[in-house]
């Protein structure tokens, strides 16, 4: 027992930075999930702005997209902690503003600032995680980030929905989001590293001076990976604004009921995510990306054909499993390609492509969902299922792109 405790303490010390970054990621992702997957949709419907739901999401995603690569590069030059703390504080304030905003123009301004904050946080956190471990453990480390993401998107609807239902208010969840971001900022300020060892070495070598060209480095570095990112997140973006409304309208669930439905997905996927990330280090990152994409596409076709809550949940578990298999390995591959001084910029570039795809999907999804009738390839389709069908088709294309663009023995090295 004593030896076990000693080994555990040594393990915690060795991966202390990764542990704290994982905690920060989990709380921040939960806050964004409550905001984006739970709080906004019913609130916007209540104040009569449902027809503008798409543009509300597009504003957030478009600003996040535009600033991800520059913010990632700033994190490379200025250190990771200021970007994470500053982004969390901005989102803390915008959540409070959302609780008082009743006009479209006010909501759009707040969503723009929220997008700026997200652009500061996520490329910085991912780059920091990538620099906190050696290359041979990077896929497992990125699994921590994926766990945080899954915790957020899985628990967000339940936590936000329960908060609103318990208080009988559509704005209570905004106050919860603000509190979560404040906690994120405090933890990040006191416990996350300013720079990883790799970052310190690059900075000491005279690579810390910010140059305008550095802000665009990532955007032109990986066009193939960016196309894959765009397609994958277009498929995801189609569902972001409408999945909760679908559960309420088609599956006849309450806000809390939707959250309860998502909980099994959180448990199964969360438990498996670290093991799947470790699998990427053992059997190869490329294989994990390809198999994960295939499983995600297969599962999305299951989601698109489900008409009961249990079918939706089973397909969702498979979808989440595919995601946590592919995403950590993919991020690890990108972190391997990028030199430490350029890692934030390169990861930010992928975030730019992801954001453009997600924004486009978020704009199209609600429009499809609200149409009176849709005809796809000569077949009449229930409009509320159309976003899921198109998402499944998009992810199927991603499987093909994964075999074309994600290659063994990648020789590129960016920022050297």
How would you describe what is shown here?
With 416 residues, the chain is mainly α. The chain has helices at residues 2-14, 16-46, 53-78, 80-100, 104-131, 138-167, 172-191, 197-207, 212-215, 217-221, 223-237, 243-249, 255-283, 285-304, 309-337, 343-369, 386-405; strands at residues 374-376, 379-381. It has one domain (15-405): Growth Hormone, Chain: A (Up-down Bundle), CATH 1.20.1250.20. It is 81% helix and 1% strand. Strand 1 (374-376) and strand 2 form a beta hairpin. The chain starts with a helix and ends in an 11-residue tail after the last helix.
In short:
This protein is an all-alpha fold and 416 residues long. It contains 17 helices and two strands.
**Would you give the CATH topology?**
Growth Hormone, Chain: A
Rounded mean pLDDT score: 81
- Give the total of beta strands: 2
Q: In percent terms, what proportion of residues is strand?
A: under 5%
Rg result = 20 Å
Q: Largest beta sheet, briefly?
A: 2 strands, antiparallel
Order of helices and strands, N to C?
HHHHHHHHHHHHHHHHEEH
Q: Segments where pLDDT lies below 50 for 5+ residues?
A: none
Domain module count: 1
Helix content: over 70%
> Helix count?
17
C-alpha geometry:
globular
CATH class: Mainly Alpha
Q: What is the CATH architecture descriptor?
A: Up-down Bundle
Given the helix and strand composition, which structural class is it? mainly alpha
Distance between the termini: 46 Å
Strand order of the largest sheet: 1-2
CATH-assigned homologous superfamily: MFS general substrate transporter like domains
């Amino acid at each position: 027992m004593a030896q076990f405790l000693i080994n555990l303490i040594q393990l915690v010390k060795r991966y202390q930075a990764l542990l704290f970054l994982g905690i920060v990621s989990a709380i921040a992702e939960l806050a964004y999930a409550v905001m984006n997957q739970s709080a906004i949709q019913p609130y916007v419907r209540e104040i009569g702005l449902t027809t503008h739901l798409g543009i509300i999401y597009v504003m957030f995603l478009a600003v996040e997209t535009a600033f991800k690569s520059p913010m990632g590069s700033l994190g490379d030059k200025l250190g990771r902690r200021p970007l994470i703390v500053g982004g969390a504080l901005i989102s803390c304030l915008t959540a409070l503003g959302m609780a008082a905003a009743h006009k479209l123009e006010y909501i759009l301004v707040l969503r723009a600032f929220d997008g700026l904050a997200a652009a500061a946080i996520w490329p910085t956190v991912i780059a920091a995680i990538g620099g906190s471990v050696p290359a041979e453990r990077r896929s497992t480390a990125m699994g921590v980030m994926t766990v945080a993401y899954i915790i957020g998107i899985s628990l967000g609807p339940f936590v936000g929905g329960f908060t609103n239902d318990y208080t009988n208010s559509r704005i209570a969840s905004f106050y919860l989001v603000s509190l979560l971001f404040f906690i994120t900022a405090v933890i990040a300020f006191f416990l996350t590293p300013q720079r990883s060892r790799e970052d310190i070495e690059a900075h000491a070598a005279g690579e810390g001076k910010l140059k305008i060209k550095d802000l665009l480095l990532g955007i032109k570095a990986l066009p193939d990976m960016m196309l894959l990112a765009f397609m994958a997140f277009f498929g995801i973006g189609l569902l972001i604004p409408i999945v909760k409304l679908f559960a309420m309208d088609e599956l006849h669930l309450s806000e809390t009921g939707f959250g309860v439905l998502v909980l099994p997905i959180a448990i199964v996927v969360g438990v498996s995510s670290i093991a799947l990330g470790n699998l990427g280090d053992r059997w190869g990152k490329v294989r994990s990306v390809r198999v994960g994409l295939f499983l995600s596409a297969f599962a999305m076709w299951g989601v698109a054909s489900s008409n009961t809550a249990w079918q939706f949940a089973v397909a969702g578990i498979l979808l989440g499993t595919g995601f946590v298999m592919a995403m950590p390995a993919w991020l690890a591959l990108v972190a391997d390609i990028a030199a430490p001084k350029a890692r934030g910029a390169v990861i930010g570039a992928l975030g730019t492509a992801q954001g453009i795809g997600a924004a486009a999907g978020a704009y199209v999804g609600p429009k499809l969902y609200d149409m009176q009738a849709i005809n796809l390839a000569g077949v009449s389709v229930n409009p509320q299922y159309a976003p899921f069908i198109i998402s499944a088709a998009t992810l199927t294309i991603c499987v093909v792109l994964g075999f074309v663009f994600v290659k063994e023995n990648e020789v590129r090295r960016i920022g050297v």
